[in-house]
Specification:
alpha+beta; four-stranded mixed beta sheet; 3 helices; 4 strands
Length: 102
């Protein structure tokens, strides 16, 4: 079981700007027949830590299942769903500010 963290909220202007930035990106995580496993959530978290803005392909799911997967992913990773178009989910989570010790 994974712990639930607060979901990041974006306003309409932020979503629009991030969607434009995400347009040329390729999906970095593929959610396949096994569904949303802990390993997939861990890989999404790793990709968000490295890139902030990512695409996830939600293959072989109907609309309700894609929306449920979106909600579980955003809750589990404290990220924001920028958009869900077809079977591609765009996620954003800002990198934490590093403590410089100054």
């Amino acid at each position: 079981m994974h712990k639930t963290m607060p979901t990041l909220m974006l306003d309409k202007a932020e979503r629009k700007a991030l969607a434009a930035q995400a347009h040329p990106l390729n999906p970095v995580v593929l959610l396949g027949a096994a569904g949303l496993t802990p390993a997939v959530l861990q890989e999404i978290d790793r990709a968000l830590r490295a890139h902030e803005l990512i695409k996830v392909r939600l293959a072989g799911m109907d609309r309700e299942a894609r929306q449920a997967a979106r909600d579980e992913i955003t809750d589990s990773t404290s990220s924001a769903a920028v958009q869900l178009v077809g079977n591609v989910l765009v996620l954003f989570r800002p990198k934490p500010e590093e403590d410089t010790g100054i």
